[in-house]
Write a structure and sequence with these properties.
The chain is of the alpha/beta class. It has two domains: 169 residues, P-loop containing nucleotide triphosphate hydrolases (Rossmann fold, 3-Layer(aba) Sandwich); 107 residues. Helix 5 packs parallel to helix 6, helix 13 runs antiparallel to helix 14 and helix 13 runs parallel beside helix 15. This is DNA polymerase III subunit.
């Protein structure tokens, strides 16, 4: 196992199941690695694949392995592909394409390069376009000899039932808040206690997401959101502070993170509330879920988005006051 894979928390059960399967008489050819984005499924897949393809007496190369095929989102278009080829940052397509699966299948007609086994990793398999998923299903139904598939799934319910039925599932559980705090202390020692709290609240058990939140510096945003939800914002001053904390031109990534942070604030308030307060919480959470679904593709004005988030949170305090009248 590589150092990076070994450093992930919560993988012990997955490693135990994987190695039991490797030690058995007949290793299953299809695996789904299921869990939240950011819990280390990709690192596990790459490390586990190297264990599977390694054979005694055959030297294994460092770095990229010729018998491990890693398939993920391609560049968005030809322009972005040229940026990739030039070593520049480039934008990804939203889906794994059918052409990628067909090209993979052509490669699978040949024998593995070094030994008798090879591994195909699809990351994330739940982002395959429908044609790609149907094409992959044919390979899962009649896998080439010595070929094993590892499908990384952040949302396993989006995979075709026929794909799920042909694979074994390795589950990667939510990481506890205490373990998340230890990961952040190790990986992001510059983070303040408030920043770590915000990251842990928003990441919902995903260390990778928590580290991303720390890098976006959302500690002050989180504190203001909690104030708005608790006290309301009748004079709009807190919403103004929230907009200032987000910045004049927040990146799309920061906007999406702010929505997730607001959802975390609402979810936290659901613990221990009385029945009459629950409908407002549920409605606000549903509105934020809808906003999160629209944000990746809608061209929202950043300032208006922040105000909308603040208004949804302020409605919680107003509904609580009304319920107490």
């Amino acid at each position: 196992m590589s150092h990076d894979a070994a450093s992930y928390i919560g993988h012990d059960a997955a490693w135990a199941e994987w190695r039991r399967a490797m030690a058995g008489e007949r290793m299953h050819h299809g695996w789904i690695l299921s869990g939240r984005k950011g819990v280390g499924k990709s690192a596990f897949a790459l490390a586990a694949a190297r264990e599977l393809v390694a054979e005694e007496g055959i030297p294994q190369p460092p770095g990229d392995h010729p018998d491990i095929r890693y398939v993920t989102h391609p560049p968005k278009n030809d322009t972005e592909a040229r940026k990739r080829d030039d070593g520049k940052p480039y934008e990804l397509a939203r889906n794994i394409k059918i052409d990628q699966i067909r090209e993979l299948q052509r490669r699978l007609t040949t024998r593995p390069t070094l030994g008798s086994r090879r591994v195909v990793i699809l990351d994330p398999a739940d982002d395959m376009e429908p044609g790609a998923a149907n094409a992959l299903l044919k390979s899962l139904e009649e896998p080439p000899v010595g070929t094993y598939f590892m499908l990384i799934a952040h949302r396993i319910g989006r995979l075709l039932p026929t794909i799920r039925s042909r694979c074994r599932v390795l589950s990667f559980p939510r990481v506890s808040d205490e373990d998340m705090d230890r990961v952040l202390a190790r990986e992001s020692p510059q983070a303040s206690a408030d920043m770590r709290e915000a990251a842990i609240a928003a990441a919902n058990g995903s260390p990778g997401a928590a580290i991303d939140f720390v890098e976006l510096d959302l500690g002050k945003v989180h504190a203001l959101m909690k104030q708005v939800a608790e006290r309301g914002d009748p004079d709009f001053s807190l919403r103004g502070q929230l907009a200032s904390a987000m910045g004049a031109r927040p990146s799309r990534e920061k906007q999406l993170a702010a929505i997730e942070l607001a959802r975390a604030v609402v979810a936290e308030r659901m613990h221990g509330v009385s029945g009459r307060h629950i409908p407002a919480l549920v409605d606000t959470h549903a509105a934020l879920v809808k906003l999160a679904g629209q944000a990746p593709t809608y061209n929202f004005d950043a300032g208006l988005l922040v105000m909308e988030i603040g208004t949804l949170l302020a409605s919680l305090a107003a509904s609580r006051e009304a319920a107490n009248v």
